[in-house]
Amino acid sequence: MTNTTMCGDEAQCIQSRSTTYCTCRRGFQKVPDKNSCQDVNECLRFGTCSQLCNNTKGSHVCSCAKNFMKTDNMCKAEGSEHQILYIADDNKIRSMYPFNPNSAYEPAFQGDENVRIDAMDIYVKGNKIYWTNWHTGRISYRELPASSAASTASNRNRRQIDGGVTHLNISGLKMPRGIAIDWVAGNIYWTDSGRDVIEVAQMKGENRKTLISGMIDEPHAIVVDPLRGTMYWSDWGNHPKIETAAMDGTLRETLVQDNIQWPTGLAVDYHNERLYWADAKLSVI
């Protein structure tokens, strides 16, 4: 009997002076309570690949999603030098180029004393930035500037930054908190912690609909995954949790309810299918 026949294709034969035994080859693991080996699915281990992972027998293959390129085993977006990071701070929104070491914070929007930006999202296809203002109970948007204004912007340019704000005609909002853009269907989703609901409307506020109400205490952040038709939101009320549902409000279920206190921020890693959140009370991500 040959060593291959004795141990099988998934194992190798180890011989010593006193014994001979089989051990699983790299990429395989021993089946509990059985004298055999099975393939290890490396793709189940988070961090194996930067983005897409395809398990193969005894190994795996990493690849990048569309519009990403592989660099040093990492997937990086194409044209990263043109990407802009927008940051909300109280009543203003600033921008910067995260991959440019010489980039400075530049003003993109400056509101007056009535503006309190709680959350924002970008509608890239429509070249707009949306935000919730819990201070006034409004959802607003403005066109993104063609190019970010420099810190030495003239008064004329500064007036353009200050102006151009459109308030959506959505009545009855009490305390809009989180906001998320469905860039596929062209809808906006938001949480209202004053009325304890999650709602959706078209980009200008038309055809508004309440999706989630009841058994919800203090809804805060919300994110959507349009490619999979799923939304996620955080609730930091008396029974803090993170919930999910289909984007029409059906198939509601609780994802996280243990070791969570004040979940205030959510983000989706679309390619790795992971959900991240910040807990303001526990000071963790």
From TrEMBL:
UniProt subcellular location: Membrane
Chief localisation class: membrane
Highest taxon above the source species: Eukaryota
Entry-linked SMART domains: EGF_CA, LY
Pfam families per record: cEGF, Ldl_recept_b
Keyword Nucleotide-binding listed: no
Name of this protein: Low-density lipoprotein receptor-related protein 1
